[in-house]
Structure formats: C-alpha cells, structure tokens
Write a structure and sequence with these properties.
With 403 residues, the chain is α/β, with parallel strands linked by helices. It has 4 domains: 167 residues, Molybdenum Cofactor Biosythetic Enzyme, Chain A; 44 residues, Alpha-Beta Complex (Molybdopterin biosynthesis moea protein, domain 2); 85 residues, Molybdopterin biosynthesis moeA protein, domain 3 (Beta Complex), CATH 2.170.190; 68 residues, Beta Barrel (Beta-clip). It has a 6-stranded mixed sheet with strand order 8-5-7-6-10-9. The chain has a 6-stranded mixed sheet with strand order 17-14-18-23-22-19, sandwiched between helices. A hairpin with a 5-residue loop joins strand 22 and strand 23. It is elongated, with a radius of gyration of 30 Å. It catalyses: adenylyl-molybdopterin + molybdate = Mo-molybdopterin + AMP + H(+). One of its GO terms (molecular function) is molybdopterin molybdotransferase activity. Belongs to the MoeA family. Pathway: Cofactor biosynthesis; molybdopterin biosynthesis.
C-alpha cells in the first residue's frame, strides 16, 4: 500500500521535531541570514537621550505659549556630541544641531527656517506644536525591551541596531548539514563530456543554491549509480558525516530502477510517506533513520522542477522546525490570474509564472523536466487541489523565487 499524503498532512509530521540546541557566536557582519539563538534584551534606551531631529532652537514651550509675539534669548549652542548641560532660565533657548542633546527643561525645537534671529533674540512668527522635532529618550526602544527575538533571521536592516547595542558578536543557531546524493546511471557531472543518452546532474547544483539560500551547509556526496550498494554506501557516508538531512534525487518513483525506498527499508529507516499529493514533486519520500543521531532523509524526484518544489514546500518546513524559525518558507502572496489554466482536481499544482504589477501570468511549461521554464519564471502560482480551472480575473496565490 502506497503511503500517499496530502501536503498539509505531510508537514504535520514535523510538528514534534525537536529543535537543535547547538549554537555558535559569529561577528555581526558575518551573521546575515543566520537564525538568532536567544532573545536579546536592550541594555539601553534608544534614543539614549532626548535628541534634536532638526537644526534649530530648543526651548521650553510653556515659556512662550501664551505670548502673542514669542521671543527667546539665545543662551548657547549644542552640537552633536556635546553633553547638552546648559542652565536655561525662563524665556531662553539654545541653538542646537541635528543629533544634539536637548537640554533640560527644553521640550520643543523649531527649525531655523521657521524663525528669525537678530542680536541674540529669536522671533517666532508661528509657534510649532509642543514636543516638535525631538526624538525623546526611549521612544524607539526602552531599556529592558526585546531588541531581537529567538528565531529572528538576521538581515541587513538589523546590523545597525546590533552595533548600537554594542554587539560585536551574536549567538546564532549552527547551520544544518544537508547532504545531497544524486542517483542515476544517466547522470554525469557538469564538466564531463555530454554523450548521447547522458544528462548533466543539474539538480545537485540547484539544491546547493537552495540550501545556501536558506543559509545552511551543503554537503556533496557525489553521483550514485543505480544499484543498491552504491546508494547504501552514499547514505552511510552521509550518516558518518553527521548530516542532519539527506536529499536523494532520482530513484523515488515506482520503476525497477527506483531503489531509494528499498535501500532505506533495508537500512532500518522508518518510511513516513511514499508520495505527497503535489504536482510536480509527487514521488517524494519522507523517511527517518534513527541512530546515535537521527537523520531525516528525503527521496526526491530527479526532474529539476520537481526537485525545486519538493525542497521549497517539504524540506524547508523541516529546516524551520530544526532551527526554531518560521522565516525561511516562501512568502505566499495574492494576485490576479491573467490567463487560463486547467487541471484535474486531484492534487495541488505549483506552476511557473511571471508576475507583473500583481498580475500572475502562466508561462510556457512542458512539465517537471522543463528546467528552462524554471530559469524564466519569477515565481510559482498555486492551483488548489479542488480547483479544475483558473481564468483571467480569478484571485490566485503565488510565491516569488528567492533572490
């Protein structure tokens, strides 16, 4: 009996997966794409003091709020980097530059362009609202608040705050070791001469890009021939190398030469799913080999589009569970379909498309072996299992190819 699972059912298999404990400390500029291992609490207020947001004059609003012709006497000047410790009396102000510490008891800044100064007296034709042009201490982030949460993905926009917090290093989850084992007598490596009947092993390179694209460690075990001993040897090498996940491409269908499941069963692996109700990617095997270290093993279709979708839709959710994040899976968007697409209402379809201003446009696609369509696509639209046709104007979900 073939263990066919719906995609949602297959992903629930990973619900009880234990997150890895291993972490490492890396320099913040080497941490892009890494997963933050611990909650990080701010030790400081941001801004750390009341800071002028404009070049202008700082004053206490109440001193002139009731005056029909507001006038202020200039007491001094505060530049960025100055302590701002100037004693002010009622009706006095300071000239202040952007980023300067706003002296007490000032609570408002008026920009130079909105007033006039002559002989040390500032005239204000129109009083700005109280608290104008000041970034107050702690208004962005208060001491004791979370700056970063466990499971956050480090992106370029986080580096500024890390540096401001004095974080030269950040603790991140270790990278998962993900091994790739392409199988097939027809496969040759990328630099070998292409003889009739042979094909270059493109899926290994595509998977390497996808693995590195989610910031994990790629391990190459080389091409395996279509025989049980060769496949078993490669899997054993993956286990010895302490891989967390093994991806075996080809050999996952039901033909005589599709040996992956047979080998896994003989090695004592638990077969969780033999097929997943998606297209492309249906002959995806999910297995687990228990030992000193548990290893998740995926038997993946050899066709390039199938391999791509199986990784994005099935493997990445496991990576997220193991690393304690939810930031790696494709981001589902909603658009408007522009074209016609027909299918049997039997499984979820992922179809290459172009996306222009929210319009989702199907492209020429000759099936899961058509790697040229993969290279032309902006993303994939999703045709739900129960649907049989999509037409122009229909709402449709899609995701963009990363990068």
């Amino acid at each position: 009996m073939v263990l066919m699972m719906e995609l949602e059912e297959a992903l629930k298999v990973f619900d009880g997966v234990k997150e890895i404990d291993d972490t490492e400390s890396v320099k913040i500029n080497d941490s892009i794409g890494r997963i933050i291992a611990h909650d990080t609490v701010s030790k400081y207020d941001f801004p750390p003091y009341d800071r002028s947001a404009m070049d202008g004059f700082a004053f206490r609003y109440e001193d002139i709020a009731a005056s029909p012709t507001p006038l202020l006497k200039v007491k001094g000047e505060v530049m960025a980097g100055h302590s701002g410790k100037i004693d002010l009396n009622k009706g006095e102000c300071v000239r202040i530059m952007t980023g300067g510490v706003v002296p007490k008891p000032c609570d408002t800044v008026i920009e130079f362009e909105a007033c006039t100064e002559e002989g040390g007296i500032v005239r204000i034709p129109k009083l700005p609202p109280k608290f104008s042009n000041i970034a107050f201490q702690g208004e962005d982030l208060k001491k004791g608040e979370y700056a970063f949460e466990r499971g956050d993905l480090v992106k370029e926009n986080k580096i500024n705050l890390m540096a401001s917090l004095g974080m030269n290093y950040v603790d991140v989850k270790r990278k998962l070791r993900i091994g790739v084992i392409p199988t097939g007598d027809e496969l040759i490596d990328i630099d070998e001469e292409l003889n009739y009947g042979k094909i270059r092993d493109s899926s290994k390179y595509s998977l390497e890009a996808q693995i590195r694209g989610v910031f994990q460690e790629f391990v190459n075990f080389g091409i395996s021939k279509d025989d049980e001993e060769s496949i078993k040897y490669k899997i054993s090498k993956g286990i010895e190398s302490e891989c967390d996940i093994l991806l075996i491409t080809g050999g996952s269908s039901m033909g005589d030469k599709d040996l992956t499941q047979r080998v896994l069963e003989k090695m004592g692996a638990t077969i969780i799913a033999e097929k997943i109700a998606i297209k492309p990617g249906m002959p995806t095997i999910i297995a687990k080999l228990n030992g000193r270290k548990d290893v998740w093993i995926f038997g993946m279709p050899g066709n390039p589009v199938s391999t791509y979708i199986a990784f994005e839709m099935v493997v990445i959710p496991l990576i997220e569970k193991l690393t304690g994040t939810n930031k790696l899976s494709p981001n589902l968007l909603e658009g408007t379909f522009a074209g016609t697409f027909k299918k049997k209402p039997d499984r979820v379809h992922f179809v290459p498309c172009k996306v222009e201003s929210g319009k989702v446009i199907p492209i020429r696609y000759n099936g899961s072996g058509d790697f040229t369509s993969l290279s032309r696509a902006d993303g994939f639209f999703i045709a739900p299992k129960e649907s049989s046709v999509l037409q122009t104007g229909d709402p449709v979900k899609y995701f963009m190819i990363k990068g």
